[in-house]
Amino acid sequence: MRCFTCCSSPSSISLFPSSYSLSLFSNPSFPASASVTKKKYPVLRAQYLDYKSTEPKLIDSMESGKEDSGLKRELYSVIEPYSSGFLKVSDLHTIYWEQSGNPDGHPVVFLHGGPGGGTSPTNRRFFDPEFYRIILFDQRGAGKSTPHACLKENTTWDLIDDIEKLREHLKIPEWQVFGGSWGSTLALAYSQSHPDKVTGLVLRGIFLLRKKEIDWFYEGGAAAIYPDAWEPFRDLIPENERECFINAYNKRLNCDDLETQYAAARAWTKWEMMTAHLIPNDDNIKKGDDDYFSLAFARIENHYFSNKGFFPSDSYLLDNIDKIRHIDATIVQGRYDVVCPMMSAWDVHKVWPEADFKIVKDAGHSANEPGIAAELVAANERLKNKIKGGR
């Protein structure tokens, strides 16, 4: 199998866009290497945020930030679902879903990361349970969905169809969409396919599934920052197969020997979990020791990455932003995100400057980092207030 991700050596992998213009910026402290498109828009809403305590503080912005004053930023209390079930979406696949919060509230669907990561109870805490009808579901092959770790009939377009089937099953006319990491990829793809069904978007840790993003994380780029975490991932693969780690892991994750699958899955998962937080999180890293979780996580991720996300072109999601430009959206991005580097969020921001863009200065990738969690809650609060104001 030809690998689409291994044409670049680590030294040639770049995190930075190639051309820049400062014509729309008034903040003199903004880096001279920043770029925007040549189109002129009345507002560029990028904000730089610093979270050095549990109470987030805005330290610099391109606007006054007054629209954010008074917004709740703390996670909501732990809640339990009021209903749950399984929806058969094909002859092969059945997906798990659940609802929590207000049964008569504004619907919001949570799209988990990975792909293959599944949902967890903490995902409910980003939303006001008195206002939102919170829908979580496990994508094909992940979490409680069956068959576990299954790659057949498992593509981005299958998942988009599943989201629609779930919306119709729950009799929801339209809903807010929330997704981080791979969830942001799926949220963009779903919204571009069904823009009339989306009332608002909250995106975190933008991942566009482009070749340079896969090269950065899986072909040696991020190893420059995490060499200690990279070496176990690298060393599982013999030297004569290291020209393409995506291919080498694909071979092992799909072989006939279950122990070989598990070993590859553990190495793949630990590499991501060790790099997902700015400050390493032991509980997150331990997920790599869970063979059940790791197998779905690694197999499904590798399957999607080997197949270029099943997108027709490398820039597909960027090329179709016009379809969703009218949707009220917020992008939250950790400055030091190694898994989904800020170049992708920045590229989306350049073609979609109407979306609020929140850069958390002291955070990495995970939605559970304090600064990112605070901005995600605030983004949902902002949309909540706009919906209330429009009633």
From TrEMBL:
EC primary class: hydrolase
Keywords: Aminopeptidase, Cytoplasm, Hydrolase, Protease
E.C. number: 3.4.11.5
The keyword Protease belongs to this UniProt entry's keyword annotation: yes
GO molecular function, one term: aminopeptidase activity
Cross-referenced SUPFAM superfamilies: alpha/beta-Hydrolases
Annotated localization: Cytoplasm
Domain (AB hydrolase-1): residue spans on this chain: 107-369
Biological process, per Gene Ontology: proteolysis
A Gene Ontology term for the protein's cellular component: cytoplasm
Reactions catalysed: Release of N-terminal proline from a peptide
Similarity-based family: Belongs to the peptidase S33 family.
Protein name: Proline iminopeptidase
Organism: Cannabis sativa (Hemp)
